[in-house]
Amino acid sequence: MKYVRSERPRISLTFTAVLAVAAIAAIPLTAVLAQNRTAPFTVTETGQGFDRLQDAVNAIGDARGTIAIAPGRYPQCAVQERGFVSFLAVEPGSVVFDGVSCEGKAALVLRGEGAEVSGIIFENMRVPDFNGSGIRLEKSNLTVAESWFRDSQQGILTHNDPEASLVIDRSTFSRLGTCEGGGGCAHSIYTGEYGELRVTRSRFEEGRGGHYVKTRGITVAIASNSFDDSRGRATNYMIDLSAGSGGQITNNWFVQGADKENYSTFIAVAPEAQWHSSAELQVAGNDARFATGVDRNAVFVRDWSGDMLGIGENALDRRLTAFARQ
């Protein structure tokens, strides 16, 4: 296949560090000092404690509030209908939402005025339609920090909201994805037509089907992440910009494993539709290779849109074609 390299310079690590810092909104850690120690869920603004997460969410109502969550494993879920809610683990990594989904969707179903999630583990989310997720985002902005999504059908799944953004920083996505359902595959992250998807300083590993990141978003900023597919099973693309996207994919580390449903491409641009221009999409400063013992050829960036002129400088395995138009 014919390919073209662009003359765009390598994106600097300094630039990426600035991007990653800016990506995450500050979640007020001082709020945990007000936590009611007798209850697992405390609305820090009022000091009210609750045994059920849903009751804490309901207590915030139309307001903006923070729920401080005590360490523990919780077979619970919650639906946010209104307001702006911050779900904050008092000790990052000590809070686990395990195996219980609301509305047959997710541990957290979010359709209020916005939300933040920090320090929480989501695991074992499975539902009959194979879309069981840690978080189902149905509208508005969401910021996720220092959280772990594992051993589920999907990590984060969204509806469409072209005016909103999904920001993920310093989080891990492990053993996610499946193509068992009749409605298509599930993925580690799967967004509808969101205004922006920003993923920084996060890790994707051991996929169990589908893609690691699939988005129909208008703009992406995917920077300083690791995509380790060396122990993946029946996985597909590392990144799928299904309907085309602008923005950047910079300074990430990719390793493609042996067990692939589709090994032809690492990053796919507009393979399903061309809703958004990809003419200004920058792909630079990335490192991509195959796992030890894998002997094959593939394309690093494959463009179905026809918008892209090429990509910037990346450190690629010699068996990888840098850029190809489909």
Keywords:
mainly beta, 11-stranded mixed sheet, 10-stranded parallel sheet, disordered N terminus
Describe the structure concisely for a colleague.
The protein has helices at about 15-25, 55-60, and strands at about 40-45, 50, 65-70, 70-75, 80, 85-90, 95-100, 105-110, 115-120, 120-125, 135, 140-145, 150, 155-160, 160-170, 170-175, 190, 195-200, 205, 215, 220-225, 225-230, 240, 245-250, 255, 265-270, 280-285, 285-290, 300-305, 315, 320-325. The protein is mainly beta.
Overall description:
- Strands 2-1-3-6-9-12-15-18-21-24-27 form an eleven-stranded mixed sheet, with helices on both faces. Strands 4-7-10-13-16-19-22-25-28-30 form a ten-stranded parallel sheet, with no helix packed on it. A ten-stranded parallel sheet has the order 5-8-11-14-17-20-23-26-29-31.
- Strand 1 and strand 2 form a beta hairpin.
- By secondary structure, the protein is mainly beta.
- Residues 1-27 have low confidence and may be disordered.
- The protein has helices at residues 13-23, 53-60; strands at 41-43, 48-50, 64-69, 72-74, 78-80, 84-89, 95-98, 106-110, 114-118, 120-123, 133-137, 142-145, 148-152, 154-158, 161-169, 172-176, 189-191, 194-200, 203-205, 213-215, 219-223, 226-228, 239-241, 246-250, 253-256, 265-269, 282-284, 287-290, 298-303, 315-316, 320-325.
- The chain has two helices and 31 strands.
